[in-house]
Amino acid sequence: MNVVELLAQLQQRGIKLWVSDGELRYRAPRGALTQELRANLAAHKAQVLAFLHQADHVKHTTLPPIKPCKRNGPAPLSFAQERLWFLDQWQPGTAAYNLFESVRMEGRLDTHALERSFNTIIQRHEALRTIFDVRDGQPVQIIVPTSTYPLRIIDIQMCFSQQYDILLRHLAFKEKQEPFNLRNGPLIRFSLIRLTPTDHVLFLSMHHIISDGWSMGVFIREAVQCYTAYIQDATPQLADLAIQYIDFAYWQRDWLSNGALDDQLTYWKDQLANAQDILQLPIDRQRPALQTFEGTTVTRLLPQALLQSLNSICQQTDTTLFMALLSLFNVLLCRYTKQNDILVGTPIANRTQIEVEQLIGFFVNTLVLRTDLSDNPTLVELLRRVRITTLAAYEHQDTPFEKVVETLQPTRDLSLPPLFQVLFVLQNTPMPQAELPDLTFTPVPFEGSTAQFDLSMFVLEQPAGLQVALQYNTNLFEETTILRMHDHFHRLVEAVITDFQQPIAHLSILTKQEMQQLLIDWNKTDGSRLENMCIHHLVTMQATRTPQSVAVLGSTSDKLFSQSPSFAELETVANRLAWYLQHLGIGPEQCVSICLQRTPTLVASLLAVLKSGGSYVPLDPAYPKDRLEFVINDTQSAVILTDTEVANLLPQTDAKIVYLDLLADQLTMFPSVPPVSTVTAQNLAYLIYTSGSTGQPKGVAITHSSAVTMLAWAQERFGKEERVGLLAATSVCFDLSVFEIFVPLAWGGTIILAENILQIASHPAYQNIRLINTVPSALAELLRQETLPEDVRVIN
Predict the structure, then answer these.
(1) Nearest CA to 450 among 156, 97, 144?
(2) DSSP state of 436
(3) CB of 602 within 8 A of CB of 595?
(4) H helix runs in 748-791, sequence order
(5) Burial class (CB in 10 A: 0-12, 13-18, 19+), 338
(6) d(CA 243, CA 757)
(7) Cβ–Cβ < 8 Å for 82, 139
(8) Which of 3, 276, 355, 644 is the most buried (most CB within 10 A)?
């Protein structure tokens, strides 16, 4: 590859090059600068410098160089350090920002040389000898003079080898959970677990305020150099450091105070204006009032074949693997949240200057990437949007995340991190290969026990494929939810590589098992028995089987029933009312509106309309008159069933109003057997209207066959004892009421009518409730009030 080809490839991947103080500088989007490109850039450095000089790029200096500053006592914190310091003040003793690495070393180990190597690095990098205090009300960092940090050795040789894994996990968990004291230090620990004389595991921990992922790599690389020299009685040949982290902190504050920050913040204010900064993830538990950091990680592997296909798509669309994976992650989040405006955070090494590449310190910054998924774009279009957003964000990466938050001033909620709650990371920080005389190294992964965000996706490219780790807050999510999310992401990748030109809404995330369950298992019905059945047919058959069983228990007085009706009594009244409705001209596909209080008469009325062949339209007496008028007119209801107590709430209408409380004597003139009707399973059973919150309410039309399919499923799903006392507290204007009313009537049970689920403790049939259908918020309140019936068997 010649220089021109190299520069063209760098430009295509969004990598910026410039010269400052005679040195080559670059800025690259995450995942853009591959190891191969990095090696080519290093190999052609002289030619690239010459080309940039010739092309007059020298004066295009983006950042001023970092130079050593005078040391006059305590120094200010960098902006990133300041944020972690405030977090530590807010929640002291947290281990959420501990960095941890572990490695197994097999062979002949010189522990003295290892300890000496670590102390050499600590002496070399001031950040590792830094503590944090308060002076004149402001946090400052103080460099501790030379001191020796002992290598702690934990010997477990006396334990059985079968217990090593258990002990190591325990020790690793304990080490990760051990907090650092920012005021007293030290903020670095290293422990050596001795399994046998030739088998050790090293734990290395640092607080994030003095280190980052890149720094861990620097530490390991220099430790290898030092150890190799010491076991050979030589002096390590480490290049001198031109600056230290404190110089960066001074430089950052000085540079950003001279107008550069204003220019950078203008971009972020425009980019994040009116963004939805709270992602409505479907959490499994109620969010605590204060943000917690308890977490764990679940890891899966995407096969190498999928990785190769993704790389091929990246080549065809001029994007990077980072952009492709971020796009797919955003599609997944869109499916889970139903939001098209997604904010995701991503860390950036923030080491675009040569001076800081070899330093240990907290340089990493966080970028907020906003993705627009509206208008159902194709994946190609989404990749284009993400590419534009990502490249622009990297152009403005020098703005400390803390300053972005300070400027935007999002609504502060102590239960949530600001601006974003989900992190995405493609892990490509260079980690040196540790090769030492007489020693072999093997990384030892231990699952984390903390989570800084609600959900984080970490992706690592490996020879076997893509390692995808989902780290989640265990106070919010169940493991089953995260495992399902893993499956959906895997399925999404498979769908994309099949056809990446299709709109994102067409990309399936359902697994084969879920497809089987959704399309086959949940739609199983006994066709020979129920194929031509209507809802009221099932009720009539049940009334024949159990005529004396109680059908409905109400909590208020009733117009047509003197007591809680049995199946036989309910069937008789419903049949007579059905004959009456047919007398008024009601038949198939004709609507009858019902506006009644929640009493057994309401249940009889619903059943009577179905028996007459008509379709019922529920009206809530609490609804405004204009909504009631709209529904009556929209359905062209010829008849309205009500009573004298409720009728004054109805609008003016040409429909015939039937007062059921005045009809009791007249109904006895009609037959008590079911009327003859031409209604079929394909005819309309009921019409329920939407809330109309986004416009005019819309009627949802349901046929008898659809409802009977649901009732057949309920018979399979719930046993007879569970159907005995089914609480019906949902308004008949919502489809859940169909389950609550007709499941017990069709299969033998008792409807327990209630006005308000939160007041069921005072219901006469409180102790008879066996099955409750409700929303999570109502259930949470019942648990808080401790009013959940003791004999409840199912909460659905």
Answers:
(1) 97
(2) B
(3) no
(4) 776-785
(5) exposed
(6) 68
(7) yes
(8) 355
- The pLDDT of 682-697, averaged and rounded, is 85
Where b means 16+ CB within 10 Å and e means fewer, 125-134 reads: bbbbbbbbee
Tell me the C-alpha distance between 74 and 53, whole Å. Answer: 41
Neighbours of 736 (CB within 10 A): 16
Instruction: Note the pLDDT tens digit of each residue in 73-99.
Output: 889 999 999 989 998 888 888 888 999
For 233, phi then psi, to 5°, come to 55, 40
Alpha carbon distance 272, 393 (integer Å) = 11
Q: Which two tokens stand for residue 129?
A: 């000898």
Supply the DSSP string of 701-733, one letter for each residue. EEEHHHHHHHHHHHHHHS-HHHHTEEEE-S-TT
Which ranges of 365-478 does DSSP label H, i.e. alpha helix? Answer: 379-395, 401-408
- DSSP assignment letter at 649: G
Question: What is the C-alpha to C-alpha distance for residues 752 and 68, in angstroms, rounded to an integer?
Answer: 79
Q: What phi, psi does 319 have (nearest 5°)? A: -125, 170
Exposed, middle or buried, 671 (CB in 10 Å: 0-12/13-18/19+)? exposed
Half-sphere exposure of 66 (CA within 13 A, CB side): 23
CA angle 331, 334, 338 (to 5 degrees): 155
pLDDT in tens, 627-679: 999 999 999 999 999 999 899 899 999 999 999 989 988 898 888 888 888 89
* φ/ψ (deg, to 5) at 442: -140, 120
Looking up tokens 């190891």, which residue turns up?
35
Query: Is 660 within 8 Å of 593 (Cβ atoms)?
Result: no
Chain centre distance of CA 10: 34
User: Cβ distance 575 to 673 under 8 Å?
Assistant: yes
Report pLDDT digits (tens) over 10-26: 766 667 776 665 667 66
The angle formed by the CA atoms of residues 772, 778 and 784, to the nearest 5 degrees, is 105
Main-chain dihedrals φ then ψ at residue 685, nearest 5 degrees: -100, -45
Tokens 């609008």 correspond to 651
Q: Which residues contact 585 (CB under 8 A, 6 or more apart)?
A: 638
Question: Are 75 and 246 in contact, with CB atoms under 8 Å apart?
Answer: yes
Would you state the structure tokens that stand for residue 453, as one six-digit string? 């965000």
Can you read off the two tokens belonging to residue 211?
């280190």
Q: Is the CB of residue 543 less than 8 Å from the CB of residue 567?
A: yes
- Considering the entire predicted model, what is its pTM? 0.64
Q: Identify the residue whose tokens are 């308060």.
A: 134
Q: Which residue has the tokens 């734990």?
A: 203
Strands 465-473 and 295-303: antiparallel
**Residues 546-575, buried b or exposed e (16+ Cβ, 10 A)?**
eeebbbbbbbeebbbbeebbbbebbbbbbb
Which phi and psi angles does 585 have, rounded to 5°? Answer: 100, 10
